[in-house]
Amino acid sequence: MAMHGSSLGLLALVLLAFPPVAARAADCGSLASPKLDWQECTKKNLMLQGSDLEGANLIGTDFSLTDLAGANFKSANLEKATLVRASLEGAHAEGANFAKIEAYRASFANIIGEGAIFAGAELQRANFAGARLAGASFEKAELGRADFDKAVLTGTKFSFANLSRADLSGAAFEGAAMFDRAFMFLTRIEGLDLSAATGLEQAQIELACGDASTKLPAGLSAPTSWPCPAEHE
């Protein structure tokens, strides 16, 4: 049925007043607040310590070199965000989505990230010292030379992750963690109790670096190449 000119004019006014949600641009100029929309915004080299970004839309946001220490990222979506050399030290990130982020040399030290998702993330040389990551997922993540000293990794998923030269030796595994097909070239596992770990195979252990105190799952044995020599940066 054809619409009269007056009806078309009224419809245009309604669309202007209430644009479709998908067409609304991110509010890059807004102050940090829960559930805000900073998608694809540039927030580089800023001081945003302690910001409350719970539930925020941070997809593709550029946080390079930004200080986000102590911030609240609970349930926030940071998929494909850039966090190169950013600091999230001591942040709350329970249930946050960090999938496919770029975070070379970023600091996640002491982050509280139970259930967080880091699947497919670029995390080379990232610092996770003291992080609480029970139930977190690092599936298919790039974790070359990442540091997990004193991190809690109970139930953490490293399936298909690249753990080349990552340091897990000071981490706490208070139960099973998953290593299905993880690449563990020179991964430091000295002193770890991996007896409850799942997915580990002898070929991975042959590549990794353990010592006499490393506990392995039943059926796996320490290779004659252990312990590995100390590595120099």
TrEMBL record:
Keyword match Hydrolase: no
Record InterPro entries: 5peptide_repeat (IPR001646), Pentapeptide-BTB/POZ_domain (IPR051082)
UniProt KW keywords: Signal
Pfam families: Pentapeptide (PF00805)
Signal peptide segment: 1-25
Keyword Signal: yes
Entry's transmembrane regions: none
PANTHER family noted in UniProt: BTB_POZ DOMAIN-CONTAINING PROTEIN KCTD9
Protein's recorded name: Pentapeptide repeat-containing protein
Organism: Rhizobium chutanense
